[in-house]
Structure formats: structure tokens, C-alpha cells
Amino acid sequence: MNTLAHFDGGPGPWILFFPLIWAAVVIGGVTLLRRTVWRGRRAPWQRGGGERNVRIDEHSPIAVLGRRFASGEIDEDEYWRRLSVLNEEFGRTSKGGAA
Among 9-18, 51-60, 75-84, whose mean pLDDT is lowest? Predict the structure, then answer.
């Protein structure tokens, strides 16, 4: 009985090694792509990745202020004045809210 362990001119046991090499190449490629190219393409519900993916709670004061401005309840000057107060309270320094 010829098996892969016998080397009588056949491939020998090394034939089992090549699928492992290809699996390592594919896993390495996917890992590399996830750490570089696909890093910023996360869904909004996924956490991590810095301040880019930080979501503001819909009941937070800044979100309520934004909704009031969008609906026309307050004008632009009032919006920026109140936003600057909220930014000071929450420790933010940029004019648009999240950095």
C-alpha cells in the first residue's frame, strides 16, 4: 500500500505542507489589509479606531442643539454661542464639536 509517507517517486509527505503555506499567505494578506486599507471602513456600531468612529449619543446636549438648529428653532448665531458653552463644559476646543 502506497501512502504519502512513502517516497517512491511520488510527492511524499510534503504535499500536505503546501496548503498550510497558502493558508498562511491568505491569513497574512487579510490581516495586512485589515490593519491598513480596511481600517477606516467600519460600520458606525463598531467601536474602536480613534475619534473618527466616536458616536454622539442622540440625547446628548450637543445632539439636541444640532436638532434644534436643523429644525429652525434657533438661528446660526445662537447655535454657535450655545455650542461654545457646551464645548467648554465638555472640554472640547474645536468649533464644530467633535475633533
Answer: 51-60
Tens of pLDDT, residues 63-76: 888 899 999 999 99
Q: DSSP 3-state assignment of 73?
A: coil
Helical spans, DSSP H, in 1-99 = 17-35, 61-71, 76-90
Q: 10, 18 in Cβ contact below 8 A? A: no
- CA 36 to centroid of chain Cα atoms: 11
Cβ 44 vs Cβ 53: under 8 Å: yes
What share of the chain in percent tops pLDDT 70?
61
Contact residues for 80 (Cβ-Cβ < 8 A; gap 6+)? 95
Neighbouring CB atoms inside 10 A of 22's CB total 9
State which amino acid sits at residue 34.
R
